[in-house]
Amino acid sequence: MRTVLFLLLLALPAQAGIHETSVPPKEGEKYKSADFKIWVPDDVKFIRGIVIKQHGCGRNGYDHAEDLQWQALAKKHDCALLGSWFQPTKECSDWFDPKNGSERALLDALKTLAETSKHPEIADAPWAVWGHSGGALWAMHLTFRHPERMIAAIPRSQAVVGDEAKAAQVPMLITYGEREKTGRFEKVHTNSQEAFAKFRPQGALWSIAIDPKAEHDCRNTRQISIPFFDACLAQRLPKAKGSLLPMDTKKAWLGNPETFDVAPAAEYKGDATKANWLPDEATAKKWQEFVKTGSVEDKTPPVAPTDVVAKAGAEGVALTWQAQPDAESGIKLFHIYRDGVKIASVGGAKTKGNPMGFYQIANYGDEPEPKPGSMTHNDKEGKPGSKYVVGIENFAGLETKSTESIAK
To answer: 306-406 maps to which CATH number?
Structure first.
């Protein structure tokens, strides 16, 4: 029957966009509710993997699936993006320990989402898991329990020391804030260092990135997380269905935890068993910048907006456009130009004077706040024949402009 269902799903057209489901707890499980939302990119026939963003204790990660910057990463590699919201019965560990039911809920949710999206491969697709705080523990637990299914893992602001040796072959970036070394979250530093110290001498493909400006908040973590996943997804995902590929160790670089110097693994002069493992040169240099400054400079302009349509009417000109997310630093603003003069800026941080915001600004749990608005603008002063250009600016201040569109 399962084979018949799989063949029937293959015969149906895949459904892009957002799909949602909830998985109630079974007897003996400790979570109260589990809600899941998955984003499936357009024009992808076969989902090669799932990027999972897991919230921390007391947070709601349901809308992580609508984070456009992370969607850009997922789409680049023909992956889906999954967000969730686990509510514990009592304690945070009621959900971040997979044995308490959250693992079973995830697996059941993926089966349902595979059906509703008409992508049956989602049920068994491999995972790249990012998690914050309690979600970091959840990500590491899953790594130890399912190393054969884990593309890579990024635990932010917490770690656990496990026993599964195969987890050493899962690329992992353990990251936390410098200011977590003391105070309420001092165990984050201790646990992270202990996990690294146990597995790195075994040849684990693991590294630590300490944000020099952060506490328990995520700040600009995505600026190193997205490049790390990008490199791992590129190397590990097979073109079609099949087992994950091993990382190419010939491309690996190592980073000194004290001096932050980086070098190809074969040329590293220090103690390799204590050095941070990094998947390639590009990621190594971004790691080096991140651990020094707490951010990574984006030097790549965004892709220009497309499909700019200017429609004249009784109340001016209604302008619409399309834009690809900027995977490096995110899109900050859209600038509207009429006849060569900037007349408005749309998006950016959500404020009283700018109620519509786009993409991501640094926040505690790396949530997509504000959620994306529509790519529209109404120019009340516009007239038929007015010439419009839409510019797209990322958080690095780099702008790219569309081709001109004439209002009709």
So the answer is: 2.60.40.10
